[in-house]
Amino acid sequence: MSLSLAEDIRSVTDLKRHTREILDHVHKTGRPMILTVNGRADSVIMDAAVYEKQLQAANLTRLLAPAETEVAAGQTRPAKDFLKEFKDARTIQG
Q: What angle do CA 29, 38, 15 make, to 5 degrees?
């Protein structure tokens, strides 16, 4: 996700005065809006659908991290061997 420094940083005062305009911008662009207080970054607002997708991606990354560590350590085996063991352990036919 990209960020436009010219368009995506606004003050909290701007948010108070132009709430609908800022929210429309966030929804239209899909980019987050950084809100400042006294010239310093304070908060971020973003489209809920974009946030949900990012949260899902982060959760998937968290779930895959242990597997990536195992692959990097060479702790792998052929899929054919795994599938045979899986079928045998669960007495799956076919």
A: 35
Query: Cα dihedral sign for 70, 71, 77, 78?
Result: positive
* Same-domain check for residues 18 and 40: yes
Is pTM beyond 0.70 here?
A: no
Q: Strand, coil or helix: what is 42?
A: strand
1 inside domain? no
Residue numbers of the domain that contains 54: 49-89
What is the tens place of the pLDDT at every residue in 37-60?
A: 999 999 999 999 999 999 999 999
Residue 54 is assigned to a structural domain of this protein? yes
Question: Does residue 2 sit within a domain?
Answer: no
Backbone angles phi, psi at 73, to 5 degrees: -85, 0
